Amino acid sequence: MFDFSIVTQWIHSMLTSFMPEGLAVFIECVAIGVCIMLAYAVIAIIMIFMERKVCAAFQCRLGPMRVGPWGTIQVFADVFKMLIKEIITIRHADNFLYNLAPYIVILASILSFSCLPFSKGMEVLDFNVGIFFLMAASSIGVVGILLAGWSSNNKYSLIGAMRSGAQMISYELSVGLSILTIVVLTDTMQFSEIVERQADGWFLFKGHIPAMIAFIIYLIAGNAEVNRGPFDLPEAESELTAGYHTEYSGMHFGLFYVAEFVNLFIIAGVAATIFLGGWMPLHIPGLDGFNTVMDYIPGFVWFFAKSFFIVWLLMWIKWTFPRLRIDQILTLEWKYLVPIGLCNLLLMVIIVVFKLHF
Amino acid sequence: MYFTLLVVVILTAIALVAVALGIARAISPRSYNPQKGEAYECGIPTRGQSWMQFKVGYYLFAILFLMFDVETVFLFPWAAVVQDLGVYGLVSIFFFIVVLILGLAYAWKKGALEWK
């Protein structure tokens, strides 16, 4: 498997050969920043296009077809449209908080985005408490949403933000419990370590039944965490116009929209990393020829294939099920997912302590 | 090393929003109309204040969330070492989780999980 850190070390040694160390590190930092921004924008664009096409496919339509071949230029046209829309300031809004909210939402999204291991050695933040950091960073987003709803001075926004807050903090518990189940199995929180441990089999299969239950809970809770699918009542169009971003226009709205889609990708990416082996190729014990062929496929192809498969699964769920009510959402979380998650955690501990796993 | 990268990522996030909004402000048209500044409530003027008292149910769930979130913070360091602790780790966390489940059961019985 190709180690991407060879490339970064080569760039570092090449830069330090003709300039002082400090300047070289500064240039590398700028390059990292530009790379994150580009990756973020590209993934957002791919996700928006995919959403429209997948939605169209499930509703027996064609989706965008007119602009460019198969409508591929449509998303760029949309981005350009978003840029040339006027940014309206509301007269009675709390202006400071109103302008601060997109910063916090994007900050939470980018912090968790840069934790994802795209390939071997190709990750920005590889802390030894990586998965814990990711959960902490992604939960900042709810503050931004609450600020957006509160500062807009609009009743739709306020109701949307409150619903969103209640839903996001509730479902964070289930996300945390299902991630904990995997941390118990690996005894590490570092993303690169977690992926390395899956060289001989993905955790979905290594962890017996508890890992599968955790995977299903994670998909349900992750879907609710990004306010999508059957859990999209913070922005229920038919009752709240647009929920917490009703008062945002132009690029202000665009940032919320982009953050929502990239958050979906992050949820899928984390699921792919901790349950489906991240950039690890599919290996079947005993079939050496098959394993060698699989090793030739680069790591980031595996990562993106797995992530987009889960994204597709979540979009399928979104366009199939009707929207839930707020009491149904909270009942599902507190009366079903949290007790099941806690029992599942205990089951996993028993399996790990008595060495019953593979 | 980690701290530098963290700062770089945070600055990137701020720069992304600032650049996007900056470009949008630079090339977007601007026109003034008193109607535009009003709250968007489908054409009807807002009745009274929007910053008002709110349903207490959300608050109850926030309190419950606090209990379980602190629990998650305690469980993560334990989860990282449970394989070395063995049966001792299992027994100690068993009582911890049982107490938590009892807390949830108490809240359930008190009706804090009902949406009224």
From TrEMBL, chain A:
It catalyses: a quinone + NADH + 5 H(+)(in) = a quinol + NAD(+) + 4 H(+)(out). It is found in: Cell membrane; Membrane. One of its GO terms (cellular component) is plasma membrane. Pfam families: NADHdh. GO terms for biological process: aerobic respiration. Keywords: Cell membrane, Membrane, NAD, Quinone, Translocase, Transmembrane, Transmembrane helix, Ubiquinone. GO terms for molecular function: NADH dehydrogenase activity; oxidoreductase activity, acting on NAD(P)H, quinone or similar compound as acceptor; quinone binding. The chain crosses the membrane at residues 23-49, 96-119, 131-150, 171-191, 203-221, 255-276, 296-315, 336-356. It is a multi-pass membrane protein. The keyword Nucleus does not apply. It is an enzyme of class 7 (translocase). It comes from the Bacteria. InterPro entries: NADH_UbQ_OxRdtase_su1/FPO, NADH_UbQ_OxRdtase_su1_CS. Belongs to the complex I subunit 1 family. NDH-1 is composed of 14 different subunits. Subunits NuoA, H, J, K, L, M, N constitute the membrane sector of the complex. NDH-1 shuttles electrons from NADH, via FMN and iron-sulfur (Fe-S) centers, to quinones in the respiratory chain. The immediate electron acceptor for the enzyme in this species is believed to be ubiquinone. Couples the redox reaction to proton translocation (for every two electrons transferred, four hydrogen ions are translocated across the cytoplasmic membrane), and thus conserves the redox energy in a proton gradient. This subunit may bind ubiquinone. This is NADH-quinone oxidoreductase subunit H. It comes from Phocaeicola massiliensis B84634 = Timone 84634 = DSM 17679 = JCM 13223. The lineage of its organism: Bacteria, Pseudomonadati, Bacteroidota, Bacteroidia, Bacteroidales.
Automatic annotation (TrEMBL), chain B:
It comes from the Bacteria. The keyword Cytoplasm does not apply. GO terms for molecular function: NADH dehydrogenase (quinone) (non-electrogenic) activity; NADH dehydrogenase (ubiquinone) activity; quinone binding. It catalyses: a quinone + NADH + 5 H(+)(in) = a quinol + NAD(+) + 4 H(+)(out). One of its GO terms (cellular component) is NADH dehydrogenase complex. Keywords: Cell inner membrane, Cell membrane, Membrane, NAD, Quinone, Translocase, Transmembrane, Transmembrane helix, Transport. Coiled coil: none annotated. Its EC number is 7.1.1.-. It is a multi-pass membrane protein. InterPro entries: NAD(P)H_OxRDtase_bac/plastid, NADH_UbQ/plastoQ_OxRdtase_su3, NDAH_ubi_oxred_su3_sf. Pfam families: Oxidored_q4. The chain crosses the membrane at residues 6-27, 56-79, 85-108. It is found in: Cell membrane; Membrane. Belongs to the complex I subunit 3 family. NDH-1 is composed of 14 different subunits. Subunits NuoA, H, J, K, L, M, N constitute the membrane sector of the complex. NDH-1 shuttles electrons from NADH, via FMN and iron-sulfur (Fe-S) centers, to quinones in the respiratory chain. The immediate electron acceptor for the enzyme in this species is believed to be a menaquinone. Couples the redox reaction to proton translocation (for every two electrons transferred, four hydrogen ions are translocated across the cytoplasmic membrane), and thus conserves the redox energy in a proton gradient. This is NADH-quinone oxidoreductase subunit A. It comes from Phocaeicola massiliensis B84634 = Timone 84634 = DSM 17679 = JCM 13223.
